[in-house]
Amino acid sequence: MAFVKNLFDKNFIEYASYVIRDRAIPDLEDGLKPVQRRIIHTLFEMDDGRFQKVANVVGQTMRYHPHGDASIYGAVVTMANKGLFAQKEPKFKWISIFLEKQGNFGNLITGATAAAGRYIECRINPLAKEFFVTNPAITHYIPNYDGRSTEPEVYRTKIPVALIMGAEGIAVGMSTKILPYNIKEVLDAEIKCLKGEKFQIYPDAPTGGLIDVSNYNDGNGKIISRAKFDTSDEKRIIITELPLDTDSKSLLESIDAAYKAGKIKISSVEDYSTDYCEIEIKLPRGVYSKDVIDSLYAYTDCEKSISCQMLVIKDNMPVAMTATEIIKYYAGKLTGIIKDELEFEKGQLTDKLHLRTLERIFIEERIYKKIEEMKTQEAVVKAVVDGFVPFKDELIRPITKEDVDHLLTIPIRRISLYDINKNRAEVKEINAKLKEIAKKLKNLTGCAIDYLEGMIAKFPAKELERHTQIKKFNATDVREVAKADQSLRYDEKGYLGINVSGGTEIKKVSPYDRIICVRKNGMYAITDVPDKLFIDKGMWFCDIADKEKLPKVLFTVIFRDPATGFASIKRCRILSWIMNRDYFLAPDGMEILHIDTREKFTFTLNYVKKPRVKITEEKFKAQDFEEKGLKTLGVRLSAHEVESIKVDGVQLELGL
């Protein structure tokens, strides 16, 4: 048994770790989940400038991601609809900085799904080549699952892909929800960070809408997102922009559900959305747009509260970060990537300069003549190496076997047509580039800023405008919007509810109200408005249990001890409660004589007539007794047995 438990624990931990790191949560380094990274890698390999069938891309990606084609196809479609900017001229269309698409990839506005992979095409966006570093000398590549190919462990990325693309995933015991950000705002924030300036960024979605970021907490709180309305015509409402994570189809469904439930009053609703949102809501006679807007926010998806958590994989561990921390991380990382790229380019140019120097000396000093008389390969190599000894001070680095092999492969035709001026010009150009690289290496922060500004310049300004408007508003409480138009009734049989026919109307209530009902025996409870509930005859009190108003109600309870017949009084308030739980205003076992909610009133106790007892009744003022806590036992009124009670001169029947 212990073996089975240990095996289960070990396998579960391994499975949980796999789901967290290799499936659901993006890596901070490149902002991608494994399936997305493998799609990008496949598209880089397949890139020939032409569009590829998505079905073909899916098949090629399975060489690296052996988890079924459906997950790959879904990820391709998702990536094609992430990191979007709007190209408005000559024809409006959304373009992703990751994948260029051709065909029906679905519609973010209408919620239409993408066509099958065999009908749609995609290719890597040239922009992606500028921020995903594919150079094996800089990005670490590892063998794929069968060892036949290599794939990047993670890409080294120059911009915060996790913020631009956003992410959503559920793992074992944790989840991530990163909303997408505006590309230009992210790059501007990174520039400000490199300059040491303050910055702050908020989500932006291509569907537009309004957001309140008061509780966003830099990516680990929640936002309230609303649709944008055009109410210029008071007899109709046009929804022009959608809330985050919403499409027109789901929005229409929520409006239809609210209408059928009687929550909103509308005449008809039509969806004319295409590349833009345009949902027209017509209102019935006597209803105007100002009367319906709050109900749309309260009862439909026109308003949504979205909780966010920026959970990413950092150093092979799940870590919750803020948007500010991610920007700072990438700002520091960008300078490191640029340094590695410059060092790599410097090494390439240094090797090229070394070879040009070798070629010049080899041909100008006729070192190649010394090898004509040599009989063996070893002698040839030695002759070449010895020939460079007098010129070792001119060499960039010591000559190697690879250098000798390069010199020996120079064709005779090239030697005979060797142009010394061309060589000198090339050497001069290489030295100029090396000098420029040395200058850049001394100012990596400036290079990083220039790179980011260059990226921004690749987009026309209008294409990077913010779509989602930041605005201050509070979430609409359905309890505040709901109208109190249902009659709460109580009949002679002891039933209470909104479906009780006949009887007495207690008051008008809404479906979201909560009520307090004090029964004949002094028991009370706070419940939702009942349809029809038996509470017994002789209800003392019933009202809406408002958290602010109910504690202001002063209850005066007059009760009798059945064992002695003595009466007591208790004055208290109900300050807190648990829903649907029974409480008693009087101590357990007492008989209720009267319950009142007035601050001041008089009552008379009628005592049991006995021989030699002259006092048969006694009058009291309720206001003469102090208010005490709900759990107190009360104050005894007299040491006489009580027979009945009068309130304000009216004789009461006990318990009614």
TrEMBL record:
Active-site residue numbers: 119
NCBIfam families in alphabetical order: PRK09631.1 (NF007209)
Keyword Isomerase attributed: yes
Organism: Treponema ruminis
The keyword DNA-binding is assigned to this record: yes
PANTHER family (alphabetical): DNA GYRASE SUBUNIT A, CHLOROPLASTIC_MITOCHONDRIAL (PTHR43493:SF5), DNA GYRASE/TOPOISOMERASE SUBUNIT A (PTHR43493)
GO molecular function: ATP binding; DNA binding; DNA topoisomerase type II (double strand cut, ATP-hydrolyzing) activity
EC identifiers of the protein: 5.99.1.-
Pfam families from the UniProt entry: DNA_topoisoIV
The protein's name: Topoisomerase-4 subunit A
Reactions catalysed, as given in the entry: ATP-dependent breakage, passage and rejoining of double-stranded DNA
GO CC field: cytoplasm; DNA topoisomerase type II (double strand cut, ATP-hydrolyzing) complex
Family to which the UniProt record says this protein belongs: Belongs to the type II topoisomerase GyrA/ParC subunit family.
Domain Topo IIA-type catalytic, residue spans: 25-455
Major enzyme class: isomerase
InterPro entries named in the record: Topo_IIA-like_dom_sf, Topo_IIA_A/C_ab, Topo_IIA_A_a_sf, Topo_IIA_dom_A, Type_II_DNA_Topoisomerases
UniProt keyword list: DNA-binding, Isomerase, Topoisomerase
Biological-process GO terms, alphabetical: DNA topological change
